[in-house]
Amino acid sequence: MALKIVKGSIDRMFDKNLQDLVRGIRNHKEDEAKYISTCIDEIKQELKQDNIAVKANAVCKLTYLQMLGYDISWAAFNIVEVMSSSKFTYKRIGYLAASQCFHEGTDVIMLTTNQIRKDLSSPNQYDTGVALTGLSCFVTPDLARDLANDIMTLMSHTKPYIRKKAVLIMYKVFLKYPESLRPAFPRLKEKLEDPDPGVQSAAVNVICELARRNPKNYLSLAPLFFKLMTSSTNNWVLIKIIKLFGALTPLEPRLGKKLIEPLTNLIHSTSAMSLLYECVNTVIAVLISLSSGMPNHSASIQLCVQKLRILIEDSDQNLKYLGLLAMSKILKTHPKSVQSHKDLILQCLDDKDESIRLRALDLLYGMVSKKNLMEIVKKLMLHVDKAEGTTYRDELLTKIIDICSQSNYQYITNFEWYISILVELTRLEGTRHGHLIASQMLDVAIRVKAIRGFAVAQMAMLLDSGHLLTGNMQRNGICEVLYAAAWICGEFSEHLDDPMQTLEAMLRPKVASLPGHIQAVYVQNAAKLFATVLQKHEGATDSQAAQDTSQLLIERLPLFVQSANLEVQERASCILQLVKYIQKLQQKDVEVAEEVSALFAGELNPVAPKAQKKVPVPEGLDLDAWINEPPSESESEDEKPKAVFAKEEPKQSRARHIEVDEKELARRREARKQEQANNPFYIKSSPSSQKVYQDAPGVEHIPVVQIDLSVPLKVPGMPMSEQYLKLEEERRQKERADKKKKDKKKKKREKRGKGKRDDSGPESEEDITPAHQVDIVTEEMPENALPSDDDDKDPNDPHKALDIDLDNLLLGNDYRPLADSEKLPVRTHRREVLKSPEEDGDQDGITQEAKRRSSKEKKEKDRKSKEEEKKKKKKKHKHVVEEEPPEPLSEEPVQSEESAEVAAPPTSTSAEASDLDFWLSSAPVPPPIKEALAPKTSVAAAPDSEPDVPKDAEPDEEKSLKNKKKKQKKEKDEKKKKKRHHHHHHHGDGGGGDSVQNGTVEEEEEEEPLPPMSNYCLLAENSYIKMVYDIQGNLQDGSQVVVSVIFENKSNSFLKSMEFNVLDSLNSKLQRPEGASPHDGLVVPFQLPPGVSNEARFVFSVQSIVMPQKLKGTLTFIVKSEDSSTHEKLDFKLHFTCTSYLITTPCYSDAYAKLLESGDLKSSSLKLEGLNMPFHHLLARICFHHHFSVVERIDSCASMYSRSIQGHHVCLLVKTANQTVSIDAKCDEPSLLANVLDEIKQTFSQC
Amino acid sequence: MIKFLLMINKQGQTRLSKYYDHVDVGKRAALEANVVKCCLFRKKEECSFVEYKDYKLVYRQYAALFIVVGITDDENELSIYELVHNFIEVLDKYFNRVSELDIMFNLDKVHIMLDEMILNGCIVETNKNRILAPLLALDKMAES
């Protein structure tokens, strides 16, 4: 025996160790594979020896070879041997090898369970550590089940080194064995407050990972994480927590509000870029989840955008990349904030780094507007030319098309330009996106009627020039364009100048080398052209031309008849025979053109994909009613499909089909329905689809959007997209000049209104005004379409199994203790010797559950001693809470913030939930308003608790008005740039108008759309800067209003150091930061590069709101041009109207009636005469400009409601008859009412 | 989550690989080849983050050695970027001016250090002394 050992160690001296192996491999560069295979043979020999040291050395070498890509699974058993060595130095090698190559399919793993358990309970912390580390790599469901209890025990180990590892491994255990989550969760939660920061961080990591997948189960931990966030100094941990909050806020918007402040503080204070980036990301996520329009949040967005700008401007490419990445997230919700940085984004297109360029491209997509589209696309076209490498070029191409076609070509003002761009793109060789260009050409040509003439000319040119025909056709994707070109030329051949020439081009022999499906289109459309040519020459005396055409076809078509492609062959031979027949007739001088054209008569209308579904069910038709008696019950369901099949098969003859009686039909229908219902792939039609053909002309129901093209379309020789830029600029200049005249504007609006009426029927093209009509079908979704996020979840996602409610682990009403079946399996044959005193419970075989309970009892005692104190606290909080609905457990003391964070206080889930509510509502955000009068105001605070819309007279009307308002609110921000050219306040801008219509047309088909409105009025203006402003009441504070001012730099210089100052009055004061004197100005938190505008908000406190007021103020700023900088100032007058103290507040009609009956209100009235506008416009204007909401509307009479920031109720009854509008108003504050009415009067006198 | 960490030299040879989710040996080679393609040919002035399939690759170059970390989309790129540097500092401290050969010859030790820093795809430890403690204890064990 001893001899054997000696022999082993001598052998070992001659063995290669890892270093030798590595050197050897390096010395055998030429025959590396051969050398390694000899090494593997040696290793195999070594593994056969009994000496564990030799084996360990061999396994160590195998680990290296495995890294090089050699399979070492054959040595799995030897690895297990080395793992079970008692010496740590060998054991760790075994575990390392195991962690590198073991996986769920490795069968020897089951041999390791006991060994691992032994190592886990080893007194040596490194044994335990190495076992845990290894386990994290190769844990299987079996191992997880068997070892879950052991690992959970280790979570309370005395050594933090072990605790942190155990905590982290638990995550893998949860994934493999989801049943372990419930029993282990309380302890995991405890670890969040472990004294060791490493353990804490591990627990944060695990809970973050769990919560990101199933956030709703972890919402109750938010207060605890909040505390960790404010106390932790470890950036890595902070990042994780902040990420977690990003996942939680969509579920609980109030949490988001609470987070904004600490996050912005972190953004300001941190020097770590990674943390800054994470904060910005989460702030963005929070703001996305919050309802927009909260005044104090635009500052946060502004801050984020500014920080991101700094990142993007940084010379570090990594920061640049991440800045762009985060910017694209903001873009989705706050496009206007990003748009002002267009210059910077465009710069990034020139970056050397492709990933940065791609990011910038993504951003551009969201930044285009009508105004800058051409310019941006021009820039992109330049890049297409310069681009090296087809991938980036293809990416550019798709982006150009994406950008142009987005939202139904919303931003394209000139389709000639777009067609030219598409034609230019066909010059790209080797692109894969020919079909994309083709489909755009088709789409535009079909849907934009006015452009067809131009499109056809361009397409004919493409067919003629034939540059697309060169090269390897099958591989070259760009030839797809010819598909579109041929179809467009054929279908709209009446626009062709010389159809004969195009026909010839389409029948060139070279065409036969195109892919089959394109040839087929060529042949078919050659026939269409033929028809056109015939028609053209029919009336003429000279019939020779027509006969020549027939001859041409007869000569050329045989080429296609021989085609290998069936489709081509079939079409060609059909048409060939047809033409031959026609030729015969021609020779007899028979007029055939009429009949040939009839083959292709009729126009193809663009139909929205879901148009059919939108057709309403005719009145009195019940689609669910039985047409015939339902089938008798006696027939078993299983038999039905079978019976149908059996009976149908022999029915070949028509005669027998007729014999089928109605009963049979109904039965079959039923069977089919059943089958369809069971068939997941069957797309169910809406119930109305059956009736479509009878009484619905279809197209009339398709919402149509109109775009004004103010430039008459004509076909200039061969215009390139470049020219359009100039054209467009001229046009805009002209428009700018036009707009200076106010009356002109009015006319324009009328024109638009007229145009709108026209397009209710697409046929009414007769009265085409210079502005061509463009039909664009909006794609819509059926109302019942629900976002199906759940379907997207991968059923194999291991996290799905971890969606377990964890709140009910706590004692209380819903308390669901761990059932016996849920307890973690514990070995019973041998009890473990446990080290930490905390685990004594386990030693006695007491389950986790019992132990937890005992620890809870301890806490209960603690709690009781604190009870007194808490009760006091409760009283203090009571006035905040009293408005909330009565809590079921009101005798339970409301938990203060600290106690809510105790790991497992014995409170019920509902109490826990209300704790969370309390914690959240104690934020500096008002608790949801609970007054019956204002049920909807709480929506802003907690959108998920939106009350049902009252189902009375006009809910839809109200809704659509509201929608519109919201949209306009958004749009007015977009429009602010355009305002440069406007010199009046409420300008109906075409751009905004279109998109508003996009959304609302379907809701109000018969009603005229509202002209766009804006509440921003001019504040002051000089040659450098223009300020427009809007005042809104602060929902959160009855004594505050927020003034939003948009600053627009009109000069060519940089404007900086802007200071906004107002001379306070006794009643209204500008809120200045603490410590500032009442005469100090407020620094505007941004600078303005030339042409850029940005918005700042200022808070004013007001005392009395019954009178309008004007405040004088001054804006000072520095104008910095290249060589000089000057101080400038601009005086202004802020007009606080009484309207600005009103807040749109919805009101139920019953509450409204009660209010009127109460008799506390004083009344007043107002008459407006000569008002020529639809009633719904009138209401919308009052709603929009004066912050009212419609309570109820019956015909030409409507009741409206609003509330002042100080709680005054304002009720209006608006009636209209013969251009006269009478408004009866009631309010509890007569002077406020009088002023509001005055302001309403003024609004309508302006239009 | 961190999905894998690779150390690759300029010639594209793998010097260390650690996968936190199991990947078959055959697929590892393909993945490493792709990663090499994605990262090694990037120029100095290009950013250190590359999108590759479902992963984001964060890489950093030290002399002839690249360290590439594959992470999921929800991981903070910059923090991983810093972690890579932290890892190199740890190696530097232990090996005293670490070189490619050190890593090759002491692969098992590098793994120990890495395991102390990243466990289960999460960052567990960033303190150099604490990361090196087990390794130093092991060295002492070997000496005695």
Automatic annotation (TrEMBL), chain B:
<keyword id="KW-0653">Protein transport</keyword>
<dbReference type="GO" id="GO:0012505">
    <property type="term" value="C:endomembrane system"/>
</dbReference>
<dbReference type="InterPro" id="IPR016635">
    <property type="entry name" value="AP_complex_ssu"/>
</dbReference>
<keyword id="KW-0472">Membrane</keyword>
<dbReference type="GO" id="GO:0005737">
    <property type="term" value="C:cytoplasm"/>
</dbReference>
<dbReference type="GO" id="GO:0006886">
    <property type="term" value="P:intracellular protein transport"/>
</dbReference>
<protein>
    <recommendedName>
        <fullName>AP complex subunit sigma</fullName>
    </recommendedName>
</protein>
<keyword id="KW-0813">Transport</keyword>
<feature type="domain" description="AP complex mu/sigma subunit">
    <location>
        <begin position="1"/>
        <end position="141"/>
    </location>
</feature>
<dbReference type="InterPro" id="IPR022775">
    <property type="entry name" value="AP_mu_sigma_su"/>
</dbReference>
<dbReference type="Pfam" id="PF01217">
    <property type="entry name" value="Clat_adaptor_s"/>
</dbReference>
<comment type="function">
    <text>Component of the adaptor protein complex 4 (AP-4). Adaptor protein complexes are vesicle coat components involved both in vesicle formation and cargo selection. They control the vesicular transport of proteins in different trafficking pathways. AP-4 forms a non clathrin-associated coat on vesicles departing the trans-Golgi network (TGN) and may be involved in the targeting of proteins from the trans-Golgi network (TGN) to the endosomal-lysosomal system.</text>
</comment>
<comment type="similarity">
    <text>Belongs to the adaptor complexes small subunit family.</text>
</comment>
<dbReference type="InterPro" id="IPR011012">
    <property type="entry name" value="Longin-like_dom_sf"/>
</dbReference>
<comment type="subunit">
    <text>Adaptor protein complex 4 (AP-4) is a heterotetramer composed of two large adaptins (epsilon-type subunit AP4E1 and beta-type subunit AP4B1), a medium adaptin (mu-type subunit AP4M1) and a small adaptin (sigma-type AP4S1).</text>
</comment>
